[in-house]
Design goal:
Layout: E1 5-12, E2 17-18, E3 22-23, E4 31-38, E5 44-49, H1 58-64, E6 72-78, H2 98-121, E7 127-132, H3 134-145, E8 151-155, H4 162-166, H5 176-182, H6 190-198, E9 214-220, H7 228-237, E10 242-246, H8 250-256, H9 258-268
Parallel strand pairs: 5-6, 5-7, 7-8, 8-9, 9-10
Antiparallel strand pairs: 1-4, 2-3, 4-6
Helix pairs in contact: 2-3
């Protein structure tokens, strides 16, 4: 599109987790990378987080590009462990361990918050966290943690990874045999252990930084991956947010919900498409 600038950038991930020691991302993932599609008017900026398996920028560029004509710029962040941030030993977007999934989610949040702060100082007063599925969770979770108001738009988000991997269709994605073999507490079933581990990521586990949010949540009534109660928790964790449902499944939301998703993004910026 004429007047659009496309830039690529990188920075060192601010992620670290303090437990018995400080833990950082592995070296191959420590450099965060992004693509910036900058509109000429610069009325606002959307930070787009990745869905499960969404490597590179092309898929989210399809969401971002139509926003440009309305003056909305977009920043597409590549997740740790995906694309150019994969381990040399990782042959696909399938993550090798539960720990790598937890690191990826938390690091993406930290990186998104850092980018929101940077571009706010650069002149973007209106910033949005946005995403679909896992990206919707990361957008909402990061939006709750940031210490200044941001807009949030999430399509089919969950409140935690727990229901996705222990209740939904992705239950079969886990190597339960390996988890059983390596479980240091054999009296605990790996399914229960997984729920306990993932409860760390529950969106309602910690209080939000603000009391009210300018946010839109869209759930799918026939979602086999994310139960309705999980979407409801996201809504409750963002007081002031709107919640609406589309009558399709999880994959259908990617295909049929895009128009609604983009409209809600624009409406949160006060733009009627």
């Amino acid at each position: 599109m004429r007047g659009t600038q496309i830039q690529h950038g990188s920075f060192e991930s601010p992620y670290f987790y303090q437990w018995k020691r400080k833990e950082y991302l592995p070296d191959f993932s420590r450099t965060a990378r992004f693509e910036l599609l900058e509109a000429k008017e610069r009325r606002g900026l959307v930070i787009h987080f990745a869905a499960t398996g969404d490597e590179g920028y092309a898929r989210r560029r399809m969401v971002a590009s139509p926003l440009l004509k309305h003056g909305i710029s977009s920043l597409i962040l590549e997740n740790p462990y995906y694309g150019s941030r994969r381990s040399p030993d990782q042959s696909s977007a399938v993550l090798p361990t539960v720990l790598s999934l937890m690191r990826m989610s938390r690091a993406a949040q930290d990186e998104g918050i850092a980018l929101a702060r940077f571009f706010r100082k650069r002149g973007y007063k209106d910033v949005m966290m946005s995403g679909i599925s896992m990206g919707g969770y990361v957008a909402a979770a990061a939006g709750r943690e940031i210490d200044f108001p941001v807009k949030i738009c999430s399509l089919v988000p969950s409140h935690s990874a727990a229901p996705v991997y222990t209740e939904g269709a992705l239950m079969t994605a886990c190597d339960w045999r390996s988890l059983t073999d390596t479980n240091p507490m054999p009296e605990i079933h790996p399914l229960i252990l997984m729920r306990k581990l993932f409860s760390i990521s529950d969106m309602d586990r910690h209080p939000a930084k603000r009391k009210k949010f300018h946010a839109a949540i869209i759930g799918a009534r026939k979602d086999a991956y994310i139960p309705e109660y999980s979407v409801d928790i996201v809504h409750r964790a963002l007081p002031g947010s709107s919640l609406e449902w589309i009558r399709t499944g999880h994959v259908g939301a990617f295909l049929l919900g895009m128009g609604l998703y983009r409209r809600r993004i624009l409406e949160l910026f006060g733009i009627q498409s």
